[in-house]
């Protein structure tokens, strides 16, 4: 241990330890994150020029081993205790607002905390009602934080069964007096639910009833082909456009169109049993090659979708470096759960 490191260990660290243990509230991460970033900036917060091996513009004042010691011995235990005390059913402050700011600093260390968050979310969702949109707000900020497998597992266990029940018990297709609210409860999960799960849900719980009603209407006396055509088109307007393009959904609507074309051919002779319709596409088995390939496609899509954001961040980092400005995590997050950065401050 050098003289400088000894000074930090014996004089500086006790003050930090006292502040963290006795004063710091984990639900207000701003000041402690700024302290750590000031003494030991993460690579994500360093301007581009400082990453040059020949540049010592932002040489950390805090040795890496001491920085790791603070994170492991002071920060993580207190965050873990606070997360364990968090109750999603009663706490009014969303947990992501005080955990997400730590992501650039703690990285993979956060997984132990995240595992506890997933357990608590799963437990709290046992009593959740599908019409309560608060679950969307609670889970939304975690979509890009949990791994795709963990997030899908959470939704499959806690959300999907409730959506199935809503379509089975609360939703009835009735052209004379249609109530779409239960279906809208389900479709609102389009932004979070993996597409293949939502497609399978509609294939198994929505379209069998839809086909039956369509066929019965086509076979009824004095059925208005124009009304049926408008009814058909109206349903295509209810389902999100991106889902309409999915193979499973497209096949079901195509089967309905085939029924309508058959009615045009048969005319008054229309009747009899409903023709066969496509069954649902089989869900992937966990760990199967099909699932792995889908996740690879989704990962490539995520990279493309985030390229514009990443490019802008790199642009800001470069401009900040050229003007000797700090570009650091602010310790705050947006309403959507994204980490916010601050720009400004003289490096010299």
UniProtKB/TrEMBL annotation:
The organism sits in which domain of life? Answer: Eukaryota
Domain (GCF C-terminal): residue spans on this chain: 1-42, 51-214
GO terms (BP aspect): spliceosomal complex disassembly
Q: Where is this region: Disordered?
A: 274-307
- What is any Pfam family matched here? GCFC
One cellular component term (GO) for this entry is: U2-type post-mRNA release spliceosomal complex
Matching PANTHER family: TUFTELIN-INTERACTING PROTEIN 11 (PTHR23329:SF1), TUFTELIN-INTERACTING PROTEIN 11-RELATED (PTHR23329)
Name of the featured protein:
GCF C-terminal domain-containing protein
